[in-house]
Amino acid sequence: MSTNRVVITGYGVTSPIGNTPQEFWKNLESGTIGIKPITKFDTSEIPVHNAGEIQDFPFDKYFVRKDKNRMDMYSLYAIYATLEALENAGLDMDTVDRNRVGVIVSSGIGGLQEMQEQIIRMHEKGMRRIQPMFIPKALSNMGAGNIALRIGANGVCKSITTACASANDAIGEAFREIKFGFQDVVLAGGSESAINEIGIGGFNALTALSTTEDPARSAIPFDKDRNGFVMGEGSGVLVVESLEHAQKRGATILAELVGYGTTCDAYHQTSPSPDGSGAAKAMKLAISEAGIEPSDVDYVNAHGTSTQANEQGESQAIVAVLGKDVPVSSTKSFTGHLLGAAGAVEAIATIESIRHGFIHMTAGTKELSEDIEANVVMGQGLKADIRYAISNTFGFGGHNAVLAFKRWED
Q: Do 359 and 353 form a contact (C-beta atoms < 8 A)?
């Protein structure tokens, strides 16, 4: 059976460190973090005070006021990133077969702000006062649905919920849709907007969030002083396309997507397998599908959440599969953890690293924990010739999803 080569021809992003790929990469390269004190609500009741909030979201570029009445912010972020991705890719929907253009955009939680507001409204005013658009705004599939509606995409449309692995799984499923000829183009990625009382309060109750006061030292993946993750928000959407389709329309190709691995630890609801075996298997699957050897991988964009158990297992997995020399860094040290959107934003960071020949540092990390053997890039970024790179994401429930990218070579 013949298969298609799969390429990335564009992407859009809204994040704590930028609302365009150019701004996003500039801040990664320069070491400018987006983690700051929370402004969306009063945090005085809890010990968690920092997050990666989006700054100056350009709402007016694509939306009008009534859109907020019909969609939760996570859907608006997703649509924004999609429209930016189409523009970045030079893809005009009027020139393609809409039946072969799909949308696979995930969210770990969905419309959490809407859930919070309407449950409070019900409690205070009764069931009859729940807003009519509550369910459509809250559902986690509506980011994808609203994108398809906005751009007129009639192909596959779905949202894959695998907690913090959701976006990588979305991109991986898009890869398979195109590789095996079911679609020509898929808009793929993730979106999340969970910086609110119930989101932060819930993860705080789980003791999963960093309680460090200094924003610059609150998200410090692999550091000996790490004590939890920092919540982030935003969206990343990639234009995933068959090589043949991209070349026919004269698209600029940013990278090739060559492998995808997904596994489950089946170990614990929230903790990963301590030995990193599930993560290692996912990495091996992605590398195998790419048709390369572990020694060919030049960079790992780590899941790197700044939590103890997660990073011990990930470091073990990286060393077991790739050895101790391959450079590793975590984008979450700049953005915080975007939950179901993390993989998409980090896929963009990985591709930009390949294109620029530069590995961004793991910001804020100063001294590695004794249980970390991976070669973590810290202090400053690193120039590197990157041909192949992998991007890891892992989620509650034991989900592991890994993508393998290759530098575009005609």
A: yes
Look at residue 342 in the predicted model and tell me its pLDDT: 98
Q: Which residues are catalytic?
A: 164, 303, 337
| Same domain, residue pair 237 and 305 | no
Whether 62 and 134 map to the same domain: the answer is yes
Residue 181 and residue 33 share a domain? yes
Structural domain for 50, as ranges = 6-248
Mode of pairing for the β-strands spanning 327-329 and 50-51: unpaired
Helices (H), ranges, 57-165: 67-70, 73-89, 112-125, 134-138, 142-151
167 plus 187 within the same structural domain: yes
Distance CA(18)–CA(24), nearest Å, equals: 4
Model confidence over 14-24: pLDDT tens digits? Answer: 999 999 999 99
pTM to 2 decimal places: 0.97
CB 235 within 8 A of CB 314: no
Query: Angle CA(354)–CA(26)–CA(103) in degrees, nearest 5?
Result: 65
Q: Which helix (H) or strand (E) holds 312?
A: helix 308-322
Residues 190 and 151 grouped into a single domain: yes
Same structural domain, 243 and 265: no
Query: Distance between alpha carbon 47 and the CA centroid of its chain, in Å?
Result: 26
Q: What is the CATH number of the domain that holds 39?
A: 3.40.47.10
Both tokens assigned to 35: 């983690």
Q: Kindly list the distances between the CA atom of residue 238 and the CA atoms of 74, 124, 326, in Å, as whole numbers in the listed order.
A: 16, 41, 26
Domain ends where: 248, 283, 299? 248
Crossing angle of helices 73-89 and 142-151, in 10° steps, is 40
Per residue, the 3-state secondary structure of 125-137, as one string, reads HCHHHCCCCHHHH
Contact by Cβ (8 Å): 306, 228: yes
Do both 110 and 90 map to the same domain? yes
pLDDT at 151: 98
Asked which of 248, 273, 308 is the last residue of a domain, the reply is 248
Domain count, the chain: 2
Q: What angle do CA 58, 62, 65 make, to 5 degrees?
A: 85
Amino acid letter for position 25? W
Residue 138, φ and ψ in degrees, nearest 5:
-85, -30
CB 364, CB 132: distance < 8 Å: no
Predicted confidence band of residue 265 (pLDDT cuts 50, 70, 90):
confident
Tens digits of residue pLDDT in 357-386: 999 999 999 999 999 999 999 999 999 999
Distance, in Å, from the CA atom of 257 to the CA atom of 275, rounded to the nearest integer, reads: 28
**Which amino acid would we find at residue 180?**
F
- Beta carbons within 10 angstroms of residue 166's beta carbon: 32
